[in-house]
Amino acid sequence: MRQHHIPRSILRHFADAEGKIWMKRRGASPIRTKVENVAVKKDQYKTLHDSRPECYEKLLTALENRLKPALEEVISEELLPCEAERQKELRLFTSLQHARSPATRKFMSSVVLPHIAKESPMNMEVQVQMKLDSEYDLPMFMDLYQTAFKNLEQLPLFLIRSEDDSFVCPDDPVFLQSDSQGRITLGLFPISSRLLLQFGGSDCNSTCEPVSANLGAVLKWNQDSIYESVAVYGRSEEAVDMAAKGWLI
Predict the structure, then answer these.
(1) For 175, which of 96, 139, 167, 198 is 20 to 30 Å away at the CA?
(2) Concatenated DSSP letters for 17-38?
């Protein structure tokens, strides 16, 4: 079963008029392809609780379908919603995308789970999990999803608009920056080639009106966001090529 770790509903907003998207993988040349061919992997959501990967996929789809209308509204109107509940849905969608991304899954598998097993050598459930599956399981995913949301809930929300459709979507679209105490201080989530959600990073009061960003500012956001990513997706070859220079810094 082929499963996207970035919803196609998001990827389509980075595609061109013909529904094609430019992809640049680390160390490779850009290629132009269909949205269906990017950010996808066979059976990547298998869990210990059920060997059928569609169970995890159904949960993610159900969550996304509930939260997606708020995101689509922002993209179509290029304005943040005034309603607190709608802004909450944007934060929840961002938390969901962070929890399901490859970098987060890799971190949980290679750092968090081994640490838990080391600290609790008698915890047989953890030991079994470490031997049977390299990915974190469903309860851990839900806990991570809610933890990210609680952090983002405390931050002001801004909408950044590119002047020339030059935002790109990394393999790990949500970039989070933390302070020395582990509290999230900045979050970036490009939701289309023209728009980016920013959480925190400013003492100003949030506003529904978008902040216009020039090419230099967008390029910096792109390069900061893709640092850990394997691939980047965008509307033009130039956009993904320029963003990928961040891998060299």
Answers:
(1) 139
(2) TTSEEEEEETTS--EEEEGGGS
pLDDT at 63: 86
11 burial (CB, 10 Å; 0-12 / 13-18 / 19+) is buried
Distances, alpha carbon 224 to alpha carbons 11, 181, 189, in Å: 19, 21, 12
Q: CA 193 to CA 205: how far, in whole Å?
A: 25
Task: Give the chain's mean pLDDT.
Answer: 83
* Run of H or E including 157: strand 157-162
pLDDT at 208: 85
| pLDDT tens digits, 122-136 | 555 555 554 444 455
> 22: which 2 tokens?
């430019």
143-152 tens-digit pLDDT: 788 888 999 9
Residue 203 pLDDT grade (very low, low, confident, very high; cuts 50, 70, 90): low
DSSP structure class, residue 206? P
Query: 112, 147 in Cβ contact below 8 A?
Result: no
**Alpha-carbon dihedral sign for residues 59, 63, 64, 69:** positive
Helices marked H in 43-190: 54-77, 84-100, 102-107, 113-119, 124-132, 138-152
